[in-house]
């Protein structure tokens, strides 16, 4: 079976992508920042894999994806057929937008491409985990909603104008837009033997399976759901109106992007439907009743995120809905960290 290099295997999405690929029989080499992280990932995945699948998991150390040549040794002599690049900072807890978000996102993405161009002769395809943050655009290019024709150029413009003072959410969107644009530009500017696919998810929820010692250390998107469940969010964000998708569908999309020849050279929105904190609260009230949740309402209306291309080209089929995704997120966190009373 084919060998895949998965960057950021210790992350929420990277771990699910790796587990899914291993369950399909791929051989996965995951990049991690340290040997200790590798052991944590191995332990997290052990119970979810058959013995033969466990043997197909190995690791390569990449301490900092932003450093020039960071992926060279991971790619060299790996004999990979595919690379999946999920590693990128997905956090709003930053001090310096350029250093903490833009540089690792852009240099990390171009760094993978450069290393494969130099050392990865066997690589046929690179799949990059981009984001709806790279797409969100008004007015939309397609009147029915956000499509793969859209680019979040507004985030780049805002970052260029505000620099170090850019709010973290906008800087994150700029980092994802700049990184994805850099990847497509790289393919245009270089004679590559591989092609590129991007997967563009909105907010990703679902059961975390990656190493995480405490709820405070959860990845940003799952923490949003857990914080609503435990009452750490007191009022819903009135302007947060986007889409959502379950991490298991995101993993499936990455695998289908490897195995679908026609996917080459394309971006794919992977969204199950709208997301607001009002909608999330409705699910929590229905499925975890008798608890106090954030007050207020979302005033903004989500722009539809068109997933038709992911169904048509990748064969994604039905997506897991918001309710199942939120319930599974909360239950997985309770299983792992224990239940707590609402702080409200
Ligand atoms: P996580 O924070 O869980 O994972 C991020 C991964 O990237 C981790 O493995 C992390 O390593 C690694 N990483 C980040 N910066 C560096 C660095 N400088 N050097 C080495 N490794 C680094 O986030 P997610 O799994 O949620 O996100 C994964 C990808 O999906 C990102 O590209 C993100 O932009 C994208 N995405 C996420 C969405 C979401 O809602 N979660 C939505 C849309 C896109 P370590 O564990 O050691 O910190």
UniProtKB/TrEMBL annotation:
Pfam families from the UniProt entry: Epimerase
Keyword Oxidoreductase recorded: yes
The entry's keywords: Oxidoreductase
Domain NAD-dependent epimerase/dehydratase, first and last residues per copy: 4-266
Gene3D superfamilies, alphabetized: NAD(P)-binding Rossmann-like Domain
MF terms in GO: oxidoreductase activity, acting on the CH-OH group of donors, NAD or NADP as acceptor
Protein family: Belongs to the NAD(P)-dependent epimerase/dehydratase family. Dihydroflavonol-4-reductase subfamily.
Protein name (record): NAD-dependent epimerase/dehydratase domain-containing protein
Organism ancestry: Eukaryota, Fungi, Fungi incertae sedis, Chytridiomycota, Chytridiomycota incertae sedis
């Amino acid at each position: 079976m084919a060998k895949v290099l998965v960057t950021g295997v210790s992350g929420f999405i990277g771990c699910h992508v790796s587990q899914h690929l291993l369950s399909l029989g791929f051989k996965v080499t995951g990049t991690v920042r340290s040997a200790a992280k590798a052991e944590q990932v191995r332990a997290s995945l052990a119970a979810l894999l058959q013995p033969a699948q466990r043997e197909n998991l190995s690791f390569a150390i990449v301490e900092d994806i932003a450093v020039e040549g960071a992926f060279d040794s991971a790619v060299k002599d790996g004999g990979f057929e595919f690379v999946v690049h999920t590693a990128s900072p997905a956090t709003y807890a930053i001090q310096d937008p350029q250093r903490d978000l833009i540089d690792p996102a852009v240099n990390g993405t171009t760094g993978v491409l450069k290393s494969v161009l130099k050392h990865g002769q066997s690589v046929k395809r690179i799949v990059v985990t981009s984001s709806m943050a790279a797409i969100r655009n008004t007015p939309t290019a397609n009147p029915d909603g956000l499509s793969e024709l859209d680019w979040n150029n507004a985030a780049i413009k805002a970052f260029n104008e505000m620099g170090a003072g850019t709010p973290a959410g906008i800087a994150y969107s700029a980092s994802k837009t700049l990184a994805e644009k850099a990847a497509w530009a790289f393919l245009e500017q270089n004679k590559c033997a591989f092609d590129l696919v991007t997967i563009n998810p909105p907010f990703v929820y679902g059961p975390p399976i990656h190493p995480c010692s405490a709820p405070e250390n959860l990845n940003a998107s799952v923490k949003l759901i857990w914080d609503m469940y435990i009452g750490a969010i007191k009022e819903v964000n009135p302007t947060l109106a986007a889409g959502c998708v379950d991490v298991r569908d995101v993993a499936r999309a990455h695998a289908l992007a490897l195995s679908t020849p026609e996917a080459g050279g394309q971006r794919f929105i992977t969204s199950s439907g709208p997301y607001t904190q009002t909608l999330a609260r409705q699910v929590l009230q229905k499925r975890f009743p008798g608890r106090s949740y954030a007050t207020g309402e979302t005033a903004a209306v989500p722009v539809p995120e068109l997933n038709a291309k992911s169904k048509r080209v990748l064969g994604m089929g039905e997506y897991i809905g918001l309710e199942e995704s939120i319930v599974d997120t909360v239950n997985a966190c309770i299983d792992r960290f224990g239940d707590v009373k609402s702080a409200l």
